[in-house]
Amino acid sequence: MIARAERREPIVATADDARSLERLRHVLEATQSEGMQLVDADGQRLDIPRSVYELLRQTVPILADGDAVALEFLGEEVTVQAAADFLNVSEHYLVHLLETGEIPSPSNNLFHRWDRVSVTGPRGYIRLSDLIRYKKQRDKLQRESLRELTQLSQELGLYL
Fold this sequence. Notes:
With 160 residues, the chain is mainly alpha-helical. The protein folds into two domains: 4-64, no CATH class; 77-155, no CATH class. It has helices spanning 18-30, 50-64, 80-87, 91-99, 128-155; strands at residues 37-39, 45-47, 77-79, 125-127. The chain has a two-stranded antiparallel ribbon with strand order 1-2. Strands 3-4 form a two-stranded antiparallel sheet. Strand 1 (37-39) and strand 2 form a beta hairpin. Helix 1 (18-30) packs across helix 2 and helix 3 (80-87) packs across helix 4. The chain is extended. The relative contact order is 0.10.
């Protein structure tokens, strides 16, 4: 088993990997996760779980382009900094989201004033599932807003 610390090392494809990565990229682009399998050295088939398929779908093109990939373990709860990084927002804005209840706060969803000096301990962690839920809702709203804006622009003749 690979230790979690080892997983943080950047992964860089070698020149010998290029052809296989390009082929894998095309297979992943043309295939849905259902039905994908690995075949081991003994010919045994193993279904690829959707989570692993998504990991491959996101990382293979990066490696195929010659860039490095680093994986980071995110447990059930993450720090304020990791949560802000995950959402691509500042810590200050994340605290605002917690204060307003847009993201449930720790400690049984009862908000405790965040100590800006020390955001560690039981109150300094945020459930990853809450962040994922918030991010999905935010991304959906952004897509809908962009679609509406594009449609309005087309109706006004501003966007062709």
